[in-house]
Amino acid sequence: MKAATKYLIIAVFALLGSTAMYLYWFFVGCKSGTCLITSSPTISSGYGLLLGGLIGGSVTDWVNKR
Questions:
Q1: What is the rounded CA–CA span in Å between residue 56 and residue 59?
Q2: At residue 42, what are phi and psi to the nearest 5 degrees?
Q3: pLDDT tens digits for 9-47?
């Protein structure tokens, strides 16, 4: 797999994770504001971006081993 394809897959997963966590914050969220991850859309999206990137990196490594 080419390096550009690998980084594209990681970026797509990161954007999907960020979008998913923003939607989670929007629809479920934390009403009291004391929840660590879901109290702010920025924090929630940041965690989603990080987790999506990590999952995307794992997926590309798994595909390369096959």
A1: 5
A2: -70, -45
A3: 999 999 999 999 999 989 988 877 778 777 888 999 999
| Separation between Cα atoms, residue 64 and residue 1, nearest integer Å | 7
Buried b (16+ CB within 10 A) or exposed e, 9-34: bbeebbeebbeebbebbeeeeeeeee
Going from the C-alpha of 53 to that of each of 10, 11, 26, 34, the distances in angstroms are: 5, 7, 21, 26
* CA 56 – CA 58 distance, rounded (Å): 5
Task: Name the pTM for this structure.
Answer: 0.84
Amino acid symbol at 47? Y
